[in-house]
Amino acid sequence: MAFIDYYKILAVDKKATDAEIKKAYRKLARKYHPDLNPNDKEAEKNFKEINEANEVLSNTENRKKYDEFGEDWRHADEYSKAKQQKQYYGGGPQNGFGSFGGSPEYSDFFESMFSRSDSRGRGRSSQFKGQDYNVQMHLDIKDVYAAHKQTLTIKGKNIRLTIPAGVENGQVIKINGYGETGSGGGPKGDLYITFSIDNKTNFKLDKSNLYTDIALDLYIALLGGEIMINTFDGKAKLMVKPGTQNGTKVKLKEKGFPVYKKEGQFGDLFLTFQIKIPTDLSEKEKELIQELVKFKS
Asked: Cβ contacts of residue 38 below 8 Å, gap of 6+?
């Protein structure tokens, strides 16, 4: 697998702060998001690499390992253990391990990680965790309103998964042990799924809250009354107060989106009334409105 420079992917310096990395990730994720680049394979590839880079550099421990071990950061613990074993068996500090690609002792050290004999002559080999898999899953927002089963095909193997309700756009979920088989009897790698949620509804989703505009008849706004509105999972009755103003906001508690990993909990639905001004008044309606104007004046 070719080495990927995560700092270069996010276009940040190696001394970048956590805040700078977060800002760079968000900017690039928006630029290359599949929703803004439909059927663009290059953008999809960039989006995947951006998420992978952020996954490593936004994690303090992973970033520390990456800075020291480069592309082999996932095996940092094994390398450190092998280094200690080399010193124990007589290598000594003078054969210490430098940064990747910069130490003349590296090839000798690397060889010692894969095979050496102990004092009793038995061969030993280091165990390495398998390569992680990174995949992107495209779903419609309606698909994640409730938990459901999905089948992923990775390298010819079908993996049956349960997708939790309330998964967010851009969210990454780790599934242990579903990556490449390890070497030397080491554990399997993990599977990282980045979710791309397509929302073509009239509802804007923010965390677990939903937002939408409601067209309100002028006369209902003036006099009040009962109306039917669309919620995400059906219809609901709503009483409108007399004298409702344009732009009035109403909150419907627990009529929003499911809260991730909190079964039975939902966000709220926020409605904004947009009053419709009639454009096809009858002569009688015009007369009545003119009378009302005279009365008000």
From this structure: none
Q: How many domains does one find in the chain?
A: 3
pLDDT value for 94: 41
Q: Phi-psi category of 179—alpha, beta or left, where left has phi over 0 and alpha has psi -120 to 50?
A: beta
- Helix 41-57 to helix 18-32 angle (10° resolution) is 160
Residues 183 and 195 in one domain: yes
Q: What is the pLDDT of residue 208?
A: 94
Do 133 and 194 reside in the same domain of the chain? yes
Domain that holds residue 101: 67-124
> 110-148, pLDDT tens digit by residue?
444 444 434 444 445 567 888 888 888 999 999 999 999
- Cα separation, 269 vs 142, in Å, equals 16
Q: Write the DSSP symbol of residue 130.
A: P
pTM to 2 decimals? 0.56
Residues of the chain with pLDDT under 70: 1-3, 79-126, 297
Place of tokens 């990747």: 100
Are 141 and 82 within one domain? Answer: no
Task: Give a yes or no: residue 30 inside a domain.
Answer: no
Q: Which class for 151: exposed (0-12), middle (13-18), buried (19 or more C-beta within 10 A)? A: exposed
Q: Return the structure tokens found at 280.
A: 């096809």
d(Cα 89, Cα 92) in Å, to the nearest integer? 8
